[in-house]
Specification:
Layout (H helix, E strand, L loop, with lengths): L4 E7 L9 E8 L4 E7 L4 E2 L2 E2 L8 E7 L5 E7 L3 E6 L5 E9 L5 E9 L5 E3 L7 E6 L4 E6 L15 E8 L19 E4 L6 H14 L11 E6 L5 E13 L5 E16 L5 E6 L5 E3 L2 E3 L4 E6 L5 E4 L6 E5 L5 E5 L10 E4 L8 E3 L13 E2 L4 E5 L10 E6 L8 E7 L10 E2 L3 E4 L6 E8 L10 E7 L5 E7 L3 E6 L3 E6 L3 E6 L5 E6 L1 E2 L2 E2 L2 E8 L2 E6 L4 E6 L6
Parallel strand pairs: 28-33
Antiparallel strand pairs: 1-45, 2-3, 3-6, 4-5, 6-7, 8-9, 9-10, 10-11, 12-13, 13-14, 14-15, 16-17, 17-18, 18-19, 19-22, 20-21, 22-23, 24-25, 25-26, 26-27, 29-30, 30-31, 32-34, 33-34, 34-35, 35-36, 37-38, 38-39, 39-40, 41-42, 43-44, 44-45
Length: 551
């Protein structure tokens, strides 16, 4: 049976795409392999916080040196510091870890079996591993951070480590948790902080050049993607304000940015687009705080030139209406709960009115709704904005009127349960007066996202009544569709096609490129049968889909 989704091409594809931004690299000329550890980042920004309870951002990829094709891909719980290929056995030692910010240095020593692709964590208990090197076929030299910073000289815990040699007769058969903490004691040596990112990137880039890829650069997290009428693809991603791809798959233009774009709103006529660019409040450079101003840029779709920006005065999450109206909501949190949202007309280039919507946080309030005739946002209680949230519509000001905020219905359709819901992406469906809202979200729990607590629901825009509910174990990252089918992407890497009329599953499929899994972060339905999907690892998948076949 053929798959309901077929990846026709992957824009932004490149060597080592699976690992995101590289953090460590090692080469075995004897085995013809290169190992690369990387960082895919987290599916969160100041305007959207997706649950990361079961998120693994630190992959390790094993590639052939001849073609750089991925042979194995495994996950790490901590950042990858170092890799070392065994001199004779099909084994790779991988050191990982990080400081928890309060006391502990946590991590693990992984052994990757190159025959099976299985990785084993061999230290009993968590311990950050800073360096690994094979002394002989039986002896592995490691440098490990102290268990915590309580017994170290002031500052030394972050600049020193214990040098130890672990010996095993057969490193291809080491059991999980079999390396005792006592084996990690040794000489206390100075070890420079892990500031090798640029050297690692240059090493990976050199490997790509040797494999005839003249221009290599890491990519990750395609936050938004749109198909333009002329066949081009517009996207924004981590480190890139915006970029366009031609119908033949060539990159047309790209605007680099330290943080990158997070949301796109294409303006009427498709001559330009608003790009909501992430701006963290404070960035530290050389021990000094650097504050960058908020940025919602107007970018020309012809060449990427920045034509201007919206002077809202705060970092924002955008909500758009089909006719082009925008509302910019402050993402400043409780400290800026009274910051009024800014309204921008379809033809406007500056905020034209302000309206109070209360506090916003990235977990409770994200509510990007596509194909909507209304400016829909979530609004909670005045003193506790995250609680008892309602779906409200913002009506822009008329010639002689002020903006109006209308309560439509509670975010929770099940009023008999005392639940705390988080918002999520959605679309409006239906025709005429009988339009409905299909949106995703999750039920908050102090224990993290519990099985079945993510949902997609179709609701009447008249009274909020639920017409159907689909539940899932992982949160949704993106949602789009039409009157026939709703497509939902999840952090598990799965794409689910739901029948729009009743919420039943038409088909579901885990995404992969070249046989290796990818996680969808954004998607748009360009036309019936064609989806554009932006992935966590920085690729844009141009896909054909079957919309009506039950599977």
């Amino acid at each position: 049976m053929s798959s309901p989704l077929t990846v026709l091409r992957a824009l932004g594809n490149h060597s080592f795409a699976e690992i995101g931004v590289p953090s460590a690299v090692a080469v075995s000329e004897e085995q013809g392999l290169v190992g690369v550890g990387g960082n895919l980042g987290y599916p969160q920004w100041s305007g959207c916080g997706i649950d990361v309870n079961r998120w693994w951002p630190y992959p390790v990829g094993i590639y052939g040196t001849d073609d750089l094709r991925c042979r194995w891909l495994v996950e790490s719980s901590w950042p990858v510091h170092c890799l070392a290929f065994h001199p004779t056995l099909p084994v790779v030692a991988i050191g990982t870890g990080s400081y928890d910010g309060g006391c502990l240095f946590e991590g693990e020593l992984l052994l990757l079996d190159l025959r099976s692709g299985r990785s084993t964590s061999v230290i009993r208990g968590a311990r950050e591993v800073l360096h690994v090197a094979w002394q002989t076929q039986h002896a592995l030299r490691v440098v490990v951070a102290p268990p915590d910073d309580s017994d170290s000289e002031a500052g030394e815990a972050h600049t020193h480590g214990f040098e130890a040699v672990i010996e095993r007769s057969d490193w291809s058969d080491v059991a999980q948790g079999s390396v005792q903490q006592e084996e990690l004691s040794g000489r206390w040596i100075e070890f420079e902080e892990l500031t090798k990112d640029e050297a690692t990137r240059q090493g990976v880039e050199s490997l790509a050049v040797l494999a005839r890829e003249p221009r290599w650069e890491p990519r990750r997290q395609v936050w938004d993607v749109h198909g333009l009428r002329d066949g081009r693809v517009l996207a924004c991603l981590d480190g890139v304000m915006a970029e366009t791809w031609l119908p033949d798959g060539r990159l047309e233009w790209r605007v680099q940015d330290r943080e990158g774009g997070r949301q796109l709103v294409v303006r009427a006529g498709e001559l330009d687009a608003w790009v909501n660019v992430e701006r963290r409040r404070v960035r530290w450079e050389g021990g000094e705080a650097v504050v960058e101003p908020p940025l919602v840029a107007r970018v020309s779709l012809a060449d990427g030139k920045v034509l201007g920006s919206l002077a809202a005065g705060f970092s924002a999450a955008l909500t758009a209406r089909d006719d082009g109206w925008l509302v910019l909501r402050s993402t400043g949190g409780d400290r800026r709960a009274s910051e009024p949202a800014a309204l921008v007309s379809p033809a406007g280039v500056t905020p034209e009115a302000r309206v109070s919507l209360g506090g916003f946080d990235r977990f409770n309030h994200p509510f990007p709704i596509r194909h909507s005739r209304q400016l829909l946002v979530l609004q909670g209680e005045k003193q506790e904005p995250g609680r008892n949230k309602w779906v409200v519509a913002v009506d822009p000001a008329g010639p002689d009127t002020e903006p109006v905020v209308r309560r439509l219905f509670s975010l929770d359709w099940d009023t008999e349960q005392a639940r705390h819901l988080f918002g999520g992406p959605g679309i409006e469906v239906g025709t005429g007066e009988g339009r409905d809202l299909v949106h995703a979200g999750s039920v908050h729990s102090g224990a993290g996202l519990l099985p079945g607590n993510a949902f997609v629901v179709r609701r009447s825009l008249e009274d909020g009544a639920a017409r159907w509910v689909f539940t899932a174990d992982f949160p949704a990252t993106a949602l789009d569709g039409n009157e026939d089918t709703v497509y939902v992407a999840f952090t598990s890497g799965e794409l689910v096609a739901l029948r729009a009329s009743d919420g039943t599953v038409r088909w579901r499929q885990r995404l992969d490129v070249g046989g290796w899994p990818v996680v969808p972060l954004s998607l748009t339905l360009v036309c019936p049968g064609r989806l554009l999907i932006g992935t966590v690892d920085g690729r844009i998948l141009d896909c054909s889909v079957t919309g009506s076949a039950d599977r």
